[in-house]
Amino acid sequence: MPPKSVVVTGSNRGLGFGLVQQFLKDPNVEHVIATARDVEKATALNSISDPRLHILQLSLGCDDSIAAFTEKVSEIVGDSGLTLLINNAAVMLPYVTKQKPDRKIVNDLFEANTIGPMLLTQSLVPLIVKSAGRPEVSTDRLSISRGAIINIASEFLGSIGDNTSGSGEYKAMAYRMTKCAVNQFTKTLSIDLKEDHILSAGVCPGKVQTDMSKGKGEFTKRSDESSRIMSPGSVVVTGANRGIGLGLVQQLVKDKNIRHIIATARDVEKATELNTIKDPRLHVLPLAVTCDKSIDTFVSKVAEIVGADGLNLLVNNAGIAVKYGSKSQLDVNTTSVVVLSQKFLPLLKKAASKVSGDQLSVSRAAVVTISSGLGSITENDTGSGLFEGLAYRMSKAAVNMFAKTFSIDMKDDHILAVNFCPGWVQTDMGGKQAALTVEQSTSQLVTAFNKLDNSHNGGYYHRDLTPFKF
């Protein structure tokens, strides 16, 4: 059966407008609620004469707009609740690995494509719960005629496994990351709302002739083995004042082949344990990853330390995990990883150029990002879980897409990119009940770093280099 009521976001053109037209062909649909940022300019929508069509203003980047929209939808659907929400609205802005870092573009894309749809969905969930809980529906069957959330995904750009073109001709690195995060959102919703009998699914519309066209490139991943395994000459570890970051530094100082170990902390004076390490190779520098000025100052200091040799290995470890706070988590865990990695590209390329051939390794040039098992969409079988980690899951899924895209974009520059899950570790984030000590996790991680080669590029691994499913 068709839905009794449906909301379609981004309906003023393209797929959204087409969906509205199709729903209105079904006489069993009582309410079709279409959104546009500027209702007066939604010419095509306004040309439709059908009493079931409600055109409402909605700006996904504005909480007040979402609240006002939810109130109007509630008035329209009444006690029956909302049957179907289709999150279709999205923007696509060009952003590639090899460009000047621009935090605003990345954050704007996440705001429009990821955070906005998430907040709207949460705002409308009570109405969808009301529809799904109607007394006439008593089975456990899920359908769009009961209560459902459908997120419009992207055919290739949201899939990590199918990412074979990197940023590609459409310069879609950041867009890919937003869509990957939405895929994790969809999977988590399906689990969190299961007992409410609400269906959650991502639907790929295919290659459609809209203003936002999509393409797919071709790339064959190399699997040749590295002939030598060597330690990096220089390493940067972010978020090194405690936990996994501190543990990585403690493991790295054991390797006498490393010339420079650069550890970061937001407040160097408070990094007590870091400051107790007495090794002339260790440089403890301040860094606030969400501040571009701080990043620029930090990169300049690293350039002075490493000199003409460039930087061999960047370990993006800094991150936060809070029960909600999607915007701050995406900025710290995802956007900042992108920006910092881009800022270091000149130093990484300098290091990579010192070695001939196509061989990839951390001793040449590499970006390793500490992800999480919660970033896996395939392995998500607990939803938000006890930790209420919806936003955290999304941030880590997006960072997995970043590594895959970066690995393809930087292949010709011979820079390796790999993500790792460190396991459940006894840190402030993991808790004392976690299965692994910091030393157990980080010792395996560092061993795995030194084994990385071409066959691992763009991959997602456990700390022992066992592949992790995206």
TrEMBL record:
- GO annotation, cellular component aspect: cytoplasm
Q: Which GO terms describe its molecular function?
A: oxidoreductase activity
Lineage, top-rank taxon, reads Eukaryota
What's the family? Belongs to the short-chain dehydrogenases/reductases (SDR) family.
Q: Which PANTHER family match?
A: DEHYDROGENASES, SHORT CHAIN, SHORT-CHAIN DEHYDROGENASE/REDUCTASE
Q: What is this protein called?
A: Uncharacterized protein
